[in-house]
Amino acid sequence: MIELASAAFSYGGGDILTDLNLRLAPGSFHFLTGPSGSGKTTLLRLCYMELLPSAGKVMLFDADVRSMSRDQVALNRRRIGIVHQDCQFLDHLNVAENIALPLDVSGRDAGAEAGNLQELLGWVGLSGHARSMPPQLSGGERQRAALARAVIMSPDIIIADEPTGNIDWEMALRLLTLLVELNKMGKTILIATHDLNLIRTAKSQTSARVLRIHNRRLQLAGADL
Fold this sequence. Notes:
The protein has helices at residues 40-47, 70-77, 95-106, 114-123, 139-151, 169-184, 196-203; strands at 2-11, 14-24, 29-33, 55-60, 63-64, 80-83, 157-161, 188-192, 209-214, 217-220. By secondary structure, the chain is of the alpha/beta class.
């Protein structure tokens, strides 16, 4: 689904990431770890085509991202659900409207998807907050709403950037449970995190692999995590 072959990314004349080799197979579960500033977010942005590699290849759904037209990029992005670190919402729209926003952007009839939206709100435990405004949500509720927005289009891949960084452990476990459920449905999961406890918990429930960025390169983390 996603493959990086000797990929690199440079900015301002300096290498941020280099010699990246990675293959995310359908239905796989991967964590990405490394110290702050190591390039985790940059690698994720390469994976969902917000950035293009300065060297090497990034393949997405068996196509080189450099060869894709703008329309092809837009269509392929619909197959990727992204949970950003800041999980920004439009504060003038309620929670249900924010979650349904990708449907509107893609031209699909959000009204016709109302049943699916209600089911999704229930799945993330936010049925009672459908008409709440984003500032009324707690940190954990915002993260679950962000996950619901990421999966409203039924993507093949879920990419999450530090999704539990600003919530307590109980809420982190609840979010992890949802991600594990998605993986069991066949979704490919890639999570950037510095939370080793979260990784250990996930590895006890899944066959998750752990990748680490070290000295601008990507390596498979040891079994001691």
